[in-house]
Design goal:
Oligomer: single chain
Strand content: under 5%
Number of domains: 2
Number of helices: 15
Order of helices and strands: HEEHHHHHHHHHHHHHH
Helix content: 55-70%
């Protein structure tokens, strides 16, 4: 014990830049104590490797090291007085760029991706969208479309605001960042343009043709993802999208040759299709820098304010029944709330084109819900259209799966890129739910 006491209280004599009697093997960062300082007493239960000579002590996280502090270097590590390596500089830069949860709950750009989770979220979005279709169709039968849309968006604003308040109380959301506000404004403008386009198209086209033209957004998303986001979209994707579009045409029109086609109506429908496709592309572009819940709240508030200022003075919401309010509440819970949030979280993990392709399954799920809950069976034409949609979605995905080898990490046209897999965003270039 006397020898140990002499070691703890003896002077420090053999310190050099490399090691102190083999202490470097412990890889403990050490620093000088001023000469004559009171020696640190070792607690009885302290590990043996922490017994260090007087004048050296481990550097703690809460310490403020003086400028003359020196540390023992472990092999392969650079001392703090040397210039950092390129790898260390890159790590420091990425950590400095990564947003924190306290700043609006934004997601770090370095968060990992999970393609299976993205597929599951997109599939869940399609299921919620199927319930939305049934509920909104019931609401649209009881009131004008403009009234149903405005009531539905109002309900969805309340639902999203409630979730945002719960997250704020739990400390998982803070004051929104500038990119969050900008994203909400862009998505709100696209939402308004999309709904204006749908309303204008329905004044000149029948609902079936309007619905078919709206599904051309799958091509908008595919081409936009390729040109603007650098996503790899192969021929198989466009072949599948063609099958799905043919299925929507079969569902929407009894006889395409008898459809009353208006250029003005087509223009409005294409405006809506481009706006809704642009929403998905822009979400994919900024999803790693925003909080989807906060963005959805701001988007809906701006959209409701703009549409309400236009429709409420005309008495659009006057005389709505209780059944209509309940139907629009169900449509809002499943559409602009649950389905949209699942869609926004899905594009964090998979490409916008793949996400949109999976969500085309909504009519197929709607047929299944009609059979299970309402007891109504689709006609042969509806079954054929649903089969084409299902084939258009499954064929590219099955071909993509068959192309992959077990354990292979090679990129495929419908798979996220390697940059996305590492959490880095692609280079920036400049009644929807």
């Amino acid at each position: 014990m006397r020898g140990l006491d002499g070691l703890l209280r003896g002077p420090l004599e053999d310190l050099d830049d490399g090691s102190v009697g083999g202490l470097h093997e412990h890889r403990l960062p050490l620093r000088h104590e001023p000469l004559g300082a009171q020696p640190r007493h070792v607690l009885p239960n302290e590990p043996a490797q922490r017994l260090l000579p007087t004048g050296l002590r481990p550097v703690r996280d809460d310490d403020d090291p003086p400028r003359h502090a020196r540390s023992l270097r472990a092999p392969g590590l650079r001392a703090s007085r040397h210039a950092p390596s390129p790898r260390e500089r890159d790590t420091t830069r990425r950590l400095a760029r990564a947003p924190r949860r306290a700043q609006g709950g934004d997601v770090s750009e370095s968060s990992p991706t999970n393609p299976r989770r993205g597929d599951l979220l997109a599939l869940t979005s399609a299921i919620f969208a199927a319930v939305f279709l049934l509920a909104f169709r019931a609401a649209n039968a009881e009131a004008p479309r403009a009234a149903a849309v405005l009531a539905m968006l109002g309900w969805s604003t309340l639902f999203n605001a409630g979730v945002a308040l719960v997250r704020a109380r739990g400390g998982r959301a803070g004051w929104p960042r500038r990119v969050t506000v900008r994203a909400a404004a862009v998505l709100a403008v696209l939402t308004i343009l999309g709904n204006v386009g749908v309303a204008g198209a329905l004044e000149h086209l029948d609902p079936g043709l309007t619905s078919t033209v709206l599904q051309t957004q799958i091509f908008v998303v595919g081409l936009g993802g390729w040109l603007l986001l650098g996503e790899r979209v192969g021929v198989r994707f466009f072949v599948g999208a063609g099958f799905a579009l043919a299925g929507f045409a079969l569902l929407g029109m009894d006889d395409p040759r008898e459809a009353d086609v208006s250029l003005a109506g087509l223009g409005f429908a294409l405006l809506a299709s481009t706006s809704f496709g642009g929403m998905l592309l822009y979400t994919r572009k900024v999803i790693r820098r925003i909080d989807p819940v906060t963005v959805n709240v701001f988007r809906l508030v701006l959209a409701v304010a703009a549409l309400g200022a236009w429709l409420i003075p005309r008495g659009t919401l006057d005389g709505l029944s209780t059944e209509l309010w309940l139907a629009t509440a169900l449509a809002a819970a499943c559409g602009p709330f649950a389905s949209r949030l699942c869609l926004m979280f899905a594009v964090r993990h998979i490409s916008a084109a793949r996400t949109k392709l999976i969500t085309l399954l909504s009519p197929v799920f709607a047929f299944a819900l009609e059979i299970a809950w309402l007891g109504t069976f689709p006609s042969a034409r509806e079954l054929a259209g649903g089969g084409l949609i299902l084939a258009g979605v499954l064929l590219p995905m099955l071909a993509d799966r068959a192309r992959r080898r077990p354990g292979s990490r090679a990129r495929t046209p419908l798979a996220p890129s390697e940059d996305d897999a590492e959490g880095r965003q692609a280079p920036e270039t400049g009644a929807e739910r």
